[in-house]
Amino acid sequence: MAIPTRYRERLSARCDGQIIVTVDKDHCLLVYPLPDWEELERKLVRLPSMNKAARRIVRIMVGYATEVDMDGNGRILVSRELRDFAGLEKNAMLIGQGNKFELWDEPTWNEKRDAWLSEEDDGELPADLESISF
Question: Residue 128: pLDDT above 90?
């Protein structure tokens, strides 16, 4: 998988090409620059271990976290295990999410995107989002 050219220079400067790939509950992969992952990992391992949901998130995200290096052409090698988890076959979609990317199997992304776009607004936005104009 190749990181788009427009992000390569910033990733190289931010993390010297060191990237962490892990899984997400939506069956996509999360791609973090190493410093951003380290910050998240510190928060994750501090979650209460007696909380079942917290323990499950830590087991999955930290357990699957794999360090990969971006080569000179912006390519990263994603393990078979991670590709299988996300159902990555032929075509993939890399979706920017601020401090990370999501890596999706293209047909799965298209299906999820269409479903999300057709969902009715249930009016339950977090307070932080209510003040943002889109």
Answer: no
